[in-house]
């Protein structure tokens, strides 16, 4: 036994000696430049003071207070909002300044910040389109509107990985394998096969495309009635901007790639409409809703309020939170207290928002032209530190 132990020790010493004798590897690029330390990403929430919020003193805080009070019917049972919604119940203001004081007592402002430390981001606009439709397929109602298909499988990743609570995986089964669901181009063949499953039919494919981007819309039916269709699900493919594609193709200038500019291009190039729409593989499925309330239901399930509701990235701005939104870009500058009541597939990042303008053509014009640099402050309950 001792002899074997000594033999093993001798072998180990030889190996160690070999390692020590190995010459160091030559540097790749003598002399090597100093390695810059990686700068950590900035925290998305930076402490702020009320005096940091441009225009805060002149806002009509009482108007937003009433909207916040109404949404507490949905938020009041959530632990995060419990104390704030309790404070709402008995609050009565005899002057506008008292509503401002209430917000300052209940909340603390936090400056939303990009990973690189920048405070500036982007605000765009969205609205609720109005399209014409029919319950039956007949000219000119030839574009189908579908609800979520039976073979669309949605996997909530939070059940397996809590840190992925805002992510869902969508696909369909092929044998025992889960594969990506049909893209927009692939779904065109499915539309023919599943025509009898359509909820209804509309008369304008480009108008319906923009309705999908907005997430909901009103439909004036050929029988004289009006319904609302709202977002029910999507196919899991990432959103791609057709406006950006038209710019890259040299078809439009940057300032022309608004909703109105894209619609005009489509009218001039009807033979390329399918090619254009298929640039965006993302596809939205709908549910029928009554055409009541101030707007469509947002992610909170509450009707959106024109010029007060905001779509945000819920990873950084909790749904229901008041948001101070400021844009100082040219003649369209504004400062406004909003409520984070919605989300959107293209709304990603801390300083990114979509401003809800309302329903109809005029709202569509204002939303289509809105693409402004902005700054955002989220108001969080005073006891909470993100």
Description of the structure:
- Helix 2 packs across helix 3.
- A hairpin with a 4-residue loop joins strand 10 and strand 11.
- The protein is of the alpha+beta class.
- The N and C termini lie far apart (63 Å).
- The protein is built from 10 helices and 17 strands.
In short:
By secondary structure, the protein is α+β, with helices and mostly antiparallel strands.
Key structural traits:
single chain, alpha+beta, globular, 6-stranded mixed beta barrel, 10 helices, 386 residues
| Overall mean confidence score, pLDDT | 89
Shape: globular
Low-confidence stretches: 1-27
The rounded Rg comes to 27 Å
What is the distance, rounded to the nearest whole angstrom, between the alpha carbons of the first and last residues? 63 Å
**Quick one: how many beta strands?**
17
């Amino acid at each position: 036994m001792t002899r074997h132990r000594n033999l093993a020790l001798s072998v180990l010493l030889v190996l160690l000696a070999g390692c020590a004798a190995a010459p160091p590897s030559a540097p790749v690029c003598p002399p090597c430049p100093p390695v810059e330390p990686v700068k950590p990403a900035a925290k998305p929430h930076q402490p702020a003071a009320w005096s940091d919020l441009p225009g805060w003193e002149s806002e009509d805080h009482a108007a937003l207070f009433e909207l916040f009070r109404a949404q507490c019917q949905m938020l009041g049972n959530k632990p995060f909002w419990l104390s704030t919604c309790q404070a709402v119940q008995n609050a009565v203001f005899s002057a506008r300044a008292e509503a401002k004081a209430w917000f300052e007592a209940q909340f603390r402002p936090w400056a939303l910040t990009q990973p690189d430390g920048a405070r500036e981001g982007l605000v765009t606009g969205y609205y609720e389109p109005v399209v014409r439709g029919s319950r039956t397929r007949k000219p000119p109602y030839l574009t189908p509107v579908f609800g979520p298909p039976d073979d669309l499988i949605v996997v909530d990743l939070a059940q397996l990985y809590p840190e992925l609570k805002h992510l869902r995986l969508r696909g369909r089964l092929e044998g025992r394998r889960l594969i990506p669901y049909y893209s927009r181009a692939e779904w065109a063949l499915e539309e023919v096969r599943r025509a009898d499953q359509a909820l209804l039919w509309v008369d304008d494919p480009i108008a319906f495309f923009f309705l999908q981007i907005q997430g909901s819309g009103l439909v004036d039916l050929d029988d004289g009635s009006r319904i609302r269709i709202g977002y029910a699900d999507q196919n899991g493919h990432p959103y791609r901007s057709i406006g950006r594609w038209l710019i890259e193709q040299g078809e439009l200038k940057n300032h022309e790639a608004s909703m109105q500019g894209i619609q005009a291009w489509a009218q001039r190039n009807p033979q390329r409409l399918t090619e254009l729409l298929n640039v965006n593989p993302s596809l939205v499925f709908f549910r029928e809703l009554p055409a009541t309330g101030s707007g469509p239901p947002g992610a909170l399930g509450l009707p959106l309020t024109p010029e007060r509701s905001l779509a945000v990235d819920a990873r950084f701005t909790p749904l229901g939170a008041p948001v101070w939104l400021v844009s100082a870009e040219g003649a369209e500058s504004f400062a406004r207290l909003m409520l984070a009541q919605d989300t959107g597939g293209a709304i990603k990042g801390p300083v990114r928002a979509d401003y809800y303008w309302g329903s109809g053509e005029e709202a569509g014009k204002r939303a289509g032209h809105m693409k402004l640099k902005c700054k955002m402050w989220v108001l969080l309950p005073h006891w909470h530190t993100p």
